[in-house]
Design a protein that fits this description.
Belongs to the glycosyltransferase 47 family. This protein has about 450 residues and is of the alpha/beta class. It contains 16 helices and twelve strands.
């Protein structure tokens, strides 16, 4: 009985002992948890401190872009400067970033009669002279190179479309109004802005995508006689015309650009027939070939080169020659191995770009021609050049190439970067034709008033 009475006491001691142990164990676990929490808080605090310190150090040791070293006290410029700062901080992955990021171009907002009114005719933005429209459009859509603040601009783009006045007689662009229209635009900007007058237009950029550039005439003798207008002689001209010898129509600071070809039409053609597809036409040319060329002011069309091609190779099974227009001619180019690119009235022609972007080896027959963007397009690696005097030997020349190094030429030609460099897009893409124009301008920064002003300061 006594033993039964003592058991509860023993059990109670055991119970109390276990409670105490359990309580002490929970306290120990709590202490361990608190220690771990403090440890992780310390690690997190240290990591965040290191991150913000590194960010601060890096951001405050970057070189200051030249585009921000010039400030204006004009209150009217403050909103546009805020916009520029915003654009520069949110466009880190923009395709035009990189070596060109500090270059700035201001695009004049001219009355619509100088440009957009001409777009009522759809041909204006799609024909071979439409680079004047394409470059303007790409710059308007750009948010890095374009600046809304003229005081930080390196160059000033003057958007005047002069190739869209199509003749009602033959449908070709009539450019007799070009000098008057451009002169009027210059009078306008020089009276409303200070930028033209301070440099006499040396940092202003125009497009002249016609046969003989800023001479504004389709016939060489007339173009030479008229010359480049005095009011453009100090500016920069983006022009399709270029030769390696002295010529009055390139006696101005200039950049040779490619003629316009719609990237949409190219993409549609290549979707049906890729550049590396089957090519069952050995030598291709479609275009004007006069059997009996007319003497026009002592000159013959294409210096009779096209006439020789027709007379010598019409009927030759290797040559596919056509004298009439065909809307689907791109489908013929993409099937061809060699595409003839003879001169017309001017040395250059749209066939040069069409051949390259559709993977047909261009055979250039235009003595002394200066080709667009030689830094980006290694023309000697992707094309053949045949002297005008040797046009009658085309057959054996092309046979020899086909039997020797054609594969290497095609491999170089089919590089997507080559195609990209010759096409204008609605938005500037790294490496495309507008990007190449900007790159060329970046090599002319000695003309930038802003840069010279900064260097003096």
């Amino acid at each position: 009985m006594e033993e039964l009475l003592k058991r509860p006491t023993k059990r109670r001691g055991f119970y109390v002992e276990m409670r105490l142990l359990h309580k002490n164990g929970r306290q120990q676990q709590q202490l361990e948890k608190n220690s771990c929490f403090k440890y992780y808080k310390w690690v997190l605090w240290f990591s965040l401190t290191l991150y913000f310190f590194s960010s601060y150090f890096i951001s405050h040791n970057k070189p200051i872009p030249l585009s921000r070293t010039h400030f204006s006290n004009s209150k009217s410029n403050l909103p546009s400067r805020a916009l520029i700062e915003s654009v520069n901080t949110t466009s880190l992955q923009h395709p035009t970033r990189g070596a060109l990021e500090d270059l700035k171009i201001y695009v004049y907002e001219l009355p619509s009669k100088y440009n957009t009114d001409w777009l009522s005719n759809e041909r204006c933005s799609n024909h071979l002279f439409a680079s004047e429209v394409a470059i303007h459009r790409a710059l308007l859509n750009d948010d890095v190179i374009r600046t809304f603040d003229p005081y930080e601009a390196d160059f000033f783009f003057v958007p005047v479309y002069v190739s869209c006045n199509f003749s009602t007689v033959n449908g070709f662009p009539a450019i007799g109004h070009a000098r008057t229209l451009i002169s009027s635009a210059i009078q306008l900007i020089s009276s409303q802005y200070p930028f033209w007058n301070r440099t006499h237009g040396s940092d202003h950029v125009f497009v002249a995508s016609h046969d003989y550039g800023a001479c504004f005439h389709a016939m060489e003798d007339r173009a030479i006689a008229d010359g480049i207008p005095e009011f453009l002689k100090k500016s920069i001209i983006l022009q399709t015309f270029g030769v390696k010898y002295q010529h009055p129509c390139q006696e101005v600071e200039n950049v040779v650009i490619p003629p316009y070809l719609s990237p949409v039409s190219v993409r549609k053609t290549l979707e049906k027939a890729p550049v590396s597809g089957r090519r069952d036409i050995q030598v291709f040319f479609r275009g004007k070939m006069e059997v009996h060329p007319k003497n026009v002011s002592g000159r013959f069309y294409s210096k009779r080169v096209r006439t020789v091609i027709w007379r010598k190779y019409d009927g030759d099974r290797r040559f596919y020659l056509q004298r009439h227009r065909f809307a689907g001619y791109q489908s013929e180019i993409v099937r061809s191995v060699f595409c003839l690119c003879p001169l017309g009235w001017a040395p250059w022609s749209p066939r040069l770009v069409e051949s390259v972007v559709l993977g047909c080896v261009p055979v250039i027959i235009a003595d002394g021609i200066r080709l667009p963007f030689p830094d980006a397009v290694k023309w000697s690696d992707i094309s053949l050049t045949v002297a005008e005097k040797d046009v009658a030997k085309l057959g054996p020349i092309l046979d020899h190439v086909a039997a020797t190094n054609l594969t290497i030429i095609q491999k170089n030609l089919w590089d997507p970067d080559v195609r990209r460099a010759l096409l204008f897009n609605d938005h500037v893409q790294k490496g495309d034709a507008t990007w190449q124009v900007i790159r060329a301008l970046s090599q002319k920064l000695d003309r930038s008033y802003r840069r010279s002003e900064v260097s003096v300061q």
